[in-house]
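queue> holo job accepted (cytidine-5'-triphosphate)
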Amino acid sequence: MSRLVYAVILASGKGERMNCGFPKQFAEIKGKTIIERSIEAFEENEKTDEIIIVSEPSTIEKIKEIVLKNGHKKVTKIVPGGAVRAESSSIGVGEVVEDDAKVLIHDAARPLVTQRIINDCITALDSCDAVNVAIKATDTIIEAENGTMKSTTERSRMMQVQTPQGFRAGTIKKAHSMAKKEGFAGATDDCGIVFRYGLSEIRIVEGDRTNIKITYPEDIQIAEMFVEA
Ligand code: CTP
Ligand code: MG
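queue> job finished
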């Protein structure tokens, strides 16, 4: 059994909703870029062995400089991503050779991920093949179509999904290869893909309200508040 733990950090998005003129992973939170903070979380994690970064093709050099400047020793590969998140994720996971290694796939856009969350995911993978990170929904979730409510849900059973999401490499590779055949249509998060093909039970690890995804400009202020706290 491979004991290796990989982190795949997805940083190949354009950050269109952030609208800051450059990919949002290079925006700063208290003087440090989002991508640096995300790399650091896994660099500092004692159980993580290697970090693979999936970058927007035009920013690979910039990320290389950041990794060199910070002496991030666990970063072994920086590879160009794909057109959609799921494709970027499959490219990153494709760099992992051992099918029984543990792989944590993380959005670079969640720079405040905690050591507790990372460790809980890695530990959970000792006894399952897939793990999701989620927090209880605070808003009621409805399904809507063309501006009309279609269905409602029971809030107490609803959870909001975060990253990292962890897998035995063989499980997520199989899921990605199946999704690829469908052009990654409808694939948002990696656990969603594993779930769709019924490849594994998916354990849930408690997330954290501070583990926000930087999506809109105001999320920077919220993140800065959490960093200070
Ligand atoms: N991502 C990626 N490859 C893509 C699209 C997204 O690696 N083709 C990554 C982003 O860099 C981000 C994470 O997936 O870390 C979550 O995506 P999201 O928050 O949607 O980021 P962006 O796609 O960059 O933002 P937007 O949708 O506003 O353009
Ligand atoms: Mg996106």
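queue> The mean pLDDT is 97.
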